[in-house]
């Protein structure tokens, strides 16, 4: 009986010390994680808005929209984060569009847990480059063959669900942001 109490007390003490250590490590690393996420977000903004030298943040309806500005003060486009379900989990994408919301200037995948070797190909340049100067009005379409229309993207063979997820994210997010900005 005395031995059981001793084991319970020891396990409780180990649990308290371990959880305290985890809380301490979390509180110590959280500011660094936030700073790295902010840095990655800013880098993605300049990736999808290549002519921008700075940006201004517009907050509308709990959404942050980044207005890209060139060195002369002219608006070169808008960037915003879109997210949606992929094959394995949530995909988060930075989308850059021209000031008139007619074409994409590029996309950058911020987060993805898609299948390595297949779905993860959405992060590769051959797929992302298809979103450069892609017509988004009325919407982007995914095709399995070589694109012939200015609003078509070719799916990745073996990763059609992930490809479609990115296209759906681009379509839904651009239409929401377009409505928010009255474009």
UniProtKB/TrEMBL annotation:
Gene Ontology, cellular component aspect: plasma membrane
Primary location recorded for the protein, binned into one broad class: membrane
Residues where FMN phosphoryl threonine is found: 160
Single Gene Ontology MF annotation: electron transfer activity
Family recorded in the similarity comment: Belongs to the RnfG family.
HAMAP family: RsxG_RnfG
Designated name of the protein: Ion-translocating oxidoreductase complex subunit G
Originating species: Aerophobetes bacterium
